[in-house]
Design goal:
By secondary structure, the chain is of the alpha+beta class. It has 14 helices and twelve strands.
Length: 348
Amino acid sequence: MKRIKGYCNVYSDDSHLSIRRIACGDKRFYYRYASGKKVTGERVLKRIEKLVIPPNWRDTFISRDSKASVQAVGYDEKGRKQYIYHNKWHEQQQVEKFERLVAFGNALPGFREHCLSLISQPTWTQERACALVCLLLDYTGARVGNAQYSKENNTYGLTTLRRKHVQAQCDDSVELAYIGKHGKPRTLKVNDPELASLVCDCAQQQGYCLFRYQDKNKQWHDVTSEDVNAFIHNELSEQFSCKDFRTWASSRFALTNLPSVYEQIANSRTKKWESTLSKCVAAELGNTPTVCRKYYIHPKLFTVKNDEKACEKLINRVRSLHSEDCTQLTHLLPVEKLLLDVISSECA
């Protein structure tokens, strides 16, 4: 079954992936339709070539539809199913992600309050553990992590952290030091006393993983990224996931850094707005500037520079913000209120 979404066609099954790739030598391939007929059409072959399908994929199939959201599937060397999506599909997903950030910001205070009520429970239930992870996602903007990825690459996210990663403990703060995605060293500083205390409490529990919970039979289980996403779907909204917390935090970091970026641009002949802002946020997230620019920073924080007066006005508004105790997590911080104002408006 096919439905149209924006430019792309979205299928409910894989029946459209009917062109099979067949090896015919060292990194050379030919293609056949489901009927067995060899693909010879120049337009189709050029489209397949532009997909740049990795030569080491096996059981690879390509869509017969040039506008399908999924253009190709295959299995990599580790047996994982991989997808290649249409460029327009990626663009549409990005637009939708940033559009729903307004709804996310509006829903965040209530969700924070709910999570704070759950972490006050006396025992480590699944809800309590997931609520703590969500508050830490919100506080730090860190990746949630994935057990399979961690096992294969020896890198970590929040749900895959070990007790050994808890460093520099004191009465009201804690540091989490670990190797993140792409082998980058990461240090997360948690200066909120309540969150820090709970992280330290988790570190005292049995098992290797930091975040765990007990079921009704008193059996301990590791918290997974699937658990956290299910918690977000149930307690916040089906339309949100762990990634929305990272996008929100990234845009928050970007807005906070606008005055510094503005001064750097003013004092340099070579620095550009987009690249300088992206580098600032990348330093906070442990991402590359390119990834931050494409996937995490709200576009309005880039386009505001196109209107110099609007940009200066926004810079002054950021500078005028008073610092606020970050332990007051039940409402939006001043910078978050401003962020919501910026991304909600027609012009910054």
